[in-house]
Design brief:
This protein is an alpha/beta fold and 424 residues long. The chain folds into 3 domains: 166 residues, Adenylosuccinate Synthetase, subunit A, domain 1 (Adenylosuccinate Synthetase, Chain A, domain 1), CATH 3.40.440.10; 91 residues, Adenylosuccinate Synthetase, subunit A, domain 2; 157 residues, Adenylosuccinate Synthetase, subunit A, domain 3 (Adenylosuccinate Synthetase, Chain A, domain 3), CATH 3.90.170.10. Strands 9-7-5-2-10-1-11-15-19-20 form a 10-stranded mixed β-sheet, with helices on both faces. A hairpin with a 2-residue loop joins strand 16 and strand 17. Helix 2 runs parallel beside helix 6 and helix 3 packs across helix 4. The longest helix is centred in the middle third of the chain and has 22 residues. The chain is globular. The two termini are 19 Å apart. Bound molecules: guanosine-5'-diphosphate (GDP). The site of guanosine-5'-diphosphate (GDP) has 21 residues, from helix 1 and strand 3.
Length: 424
Amino acid sequence: MLTAITGINWGDEGKGRMVDLLAENYDIVIRYQGGNNAGHTVVNDRGRFILNLLPSGVFREETVNVLGPGVVIDLEHLFNEVGRLTEAGIKITPDNLIISDRATICMPYHKMLDCLEEDRLADAKFGSTRRGIAPVYSDKYMKKAFRTGDLLDFGDIERRMPAIIEWKNLTVAGGYGAEPLKAEDMLDWLRKYGLPFTPFIRNTTEYLTKAVDEGKSILFEAQLGALRDIDFGIYPYTSSSNSIAAYAPIGSGIPGKKLDSSVGIMKAYSTCVGEGPFTCEMFGDEAHKLREAGGEYGAATGRPRRVGGFDVVASRYGVLIQGATCIALTKLDVLSGYDKIPVCVKYEVNGELTDVFPSGSALAKAKPVYEYLPGWSEDIGSARKKEDLPVPALAYVKYIEDAVGCPIKYVSVGPDREQYVEMF
Ligand code: GDP
């Protein structure tokens, strides 16, 4: 069974929480794109954790976790993340963590360039997480990046580093006027944070092909949401990788294998971090109330998230491009206490109504058209079966299911592992 768990919206849908829940049924959990710009929150009997790089399967003893070739790895960040979890008693060894030899290393100069460019852009900034993700993916496509497998032959890295640093300094020092980089500093960084991971580095194509052939089940854990995909998202306010389900086998190292299912994680309302069009955005007191109720502050950055009502147009598009076979609707509990709940059902673009998600300047011009659904007052955090949900909450779920055209299998009613309802 090959299942992808992906975000339907702008990210932060609660993917980490759903992967932690569903990982029980899978032998292997894989992160296949992005880097430590992710912030997956997991709350379980071991505590509350925010994972930036490690797959959310690390908390289950029997699960093997993989960082695939599509991922970019800041080794210092990984080193610290593994250290934090080890201190909390979570075992991380080459038996339960495999790092692809084809993953790209996010170097300190990538992070530095991300910050230099965001600062240069000032008010026109992209809202980057400043973790070096766009610069490292750029270097990957420039064919000037280091890969994790290179650590297995450090002499080769030592030979290549001076030319790379010379090239980087054209921008760092020549362009931005910052202090020039030194090759020796970068080599020291790689020795300190990279070499400890050499026992974890393997060819994931061989490993995963064998695992699939042996009937092992695999869960692919996406970062961010459909609307942040580099090709299908709200360009240029996207991430620099493919966050869609179709990329999961590629970014993991098994491009010839097909997914059996795609679970789309969709929030019961909308949130968005960073800049760019966000049609259903609320402002003022209305926004404050929802942001506080949902604790909508970035897991990776602490930034307040922009919030709004559920957006049918954007979510239906998310379902479409994720090829979702079912949905997990998260954070329904946050909507308790509303008399009526706004749902954006169409966009108005240049005076015309549409339910097709636009791109480019048409999206920037789109205005939301709302319907209001009846709310409920009960706290639903303890609901464990369908019958425990108030009638208006069930009607809200059904409305959304019909509107986006995909069955809602799970409804999450709180951050804890057991706080969910299985709908069928
Ligand atoms: P991810 O990046 O998609 O994993 O999402 P985040 O971890 O950034 O954001 C999800 C946040 O919502 C985390 O703080 C979770 O603990 C929390 N969360 C997840 N599901 C629920 C839910 O159903 N209800 C509530 N109240 N919180 C939830």
